[in-house]
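Entry for the shared binder. Reason: the reviewer on the internal report wants the predicted structure included alongside the sequence.
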Amino acid sequence: MSSTPRLSTVILPVHRWNEGGCSAWQRAEELGLHTAYTYDHLAWRAFRERPWFGALPTLTAAACATSRLRLGTLVTSPNFRHPVTLAKELISLDDISAGRITLGIGAGGNGFDATTLLRGDEQPWTPRERADRFGEFVPLLDGLLREPAGLTHEGAFYSATEARNVPGCVQRPRLPFAVAATGPRGLRVAAQYGQAWVTTGDPKQYEAGSAAESLDAVRGQVDKLGKACAESGRDVDELDKILLTGFTPEFNPDLAGGGPFDSVDAFVDFAGRYAELGFTEIVVHAPVPDGSPDFPAAVPDEKLFEEIATQGLAQLAG
């Protein structure tokens, strides 16, 4: 193993704060996890008809309920965010958390985020349109967070006129971006503006691939990230590499074979293969509440979650 990856979690925003929400974030801190993220969506998959709370208010509450745990989104997108208003909320959240926020950010995709705000016969953005917006969104957000005294921008999609974000971020020169990307344009954004890069693997492999084929696909993504960094004049080792688990073939219940959540040892073997590729952070989904829609990406129960966070982390370090 080339290095010991950190272990983090995603806590879906499905808990009422006083009915398991607060305790889920505090438990992540107690277990020694590096970061606890949440999804920044208006609604998501089978959870659309279930409780689903806003990411930034949830993170604000989590910041007040914890003191050491890093917090973040996986991921925020331009689908329903604007850089000017997002920047203001982020500097506030960074201040409340005393500098513990990471912004996971991506171009977004299809689904409720892409359709909820449409009017009449408007159509969701195509992948190319999402990439175009992302390519403007991230540099503008970067500038807004770095230049608190005022920034003016007139672009193809976004405008800002003397936008002020005094006093700026606690983390300097701004809070870190973890850029989710697999295509060439997104990888260039990650290389230019990211402090970390995020992948879930190759979606095509989840449906019909093998563990080995999936690993090869991710290896190819890492190679492409390295090339994008070289073109941008950066050392790829400057970027943390984050694997959001749950979306590679090992987690597909329709495919034969044991999965990473069969045991702590199975998870350690899985995580170790990605550590060999240079991943510095492995993220697992915390268990979802009883009665929630089936979600194979999540650790199936609290006992195994705690064992992975304690025994699994120790084995990875060993």
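Summary line for the report: Residues 87 and 144 are 6 Å apart (CA to CA).
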